[in-house]
Design brief:
The protein has five helices and six strands. By secondary structure, it is α+β, with helices and mostly antiparallel strands. The protein is elongated.
């Protein structure tokens, strides 16, 4: 059985497109709506390690309290930034996908194709109409 987990925000188009690409491969993933069920510190640190990212690289600015908290300033340590992401989960960029092939922040959404253990089962276009996968299940353009 193929296990795939997505840290998902249903209000985010990129996250919705990523989830749809996973399902287009015939996989029903474990969906964690991380704003409703935020990761704990150990999980967030594990995700960062798996993705080989720093907390700063995972911070989301748009639509978050990033500017208000002045998180762009250099005095914030990694631990401080993790504290802020735990306090305000909207600061965690998304979608994060974990498969047997690894974990990654899937921006753009087609980055998920490199993580999926099964091929696409048919054509796929993003919500904005951009074709990502053709009728034969092949990637139309690489990220």
């Amino acid at each position: 059985m193929t296990e795939v987990t997505i840290y998902h925000n249903p209000d985010c188009g990129t996250s919705r497109n990523t989830l749809a690409l996973i399902r287009n491969a015939g996989i029903e993933p474990t969906v964690i709506e991380y704003l409703k069920t935020p990761p704990d510190r150990a999980t967030l640190q594990s995700l960062l390690e798996q993705m080989n990212m720093t907390p700063r690289e995972l911070l989301r600015e748009k639509g978050t309290p990033y500017a208000e908290l002045k998180l762009g300033e250099s005095h914030w340590t990694d631990e401080d930034l993790i504290d802020q992401m735990l306090k305000f989960p909207i600061l965690i960029n998304r979608p994060i996908v974990i498969t047997e092939r690894g974990a990654n922040l899937c921006r753009p959404s087609e980055a998920v194709l490199d993580l999926l253990p099964l091929p696409q089962q048919g054509a796929f276009a993003k919500e904005d109409g951009e074709r990502v996968v053709d009728e034969k299940g092949q990637r139309v353009k690489a990220p």
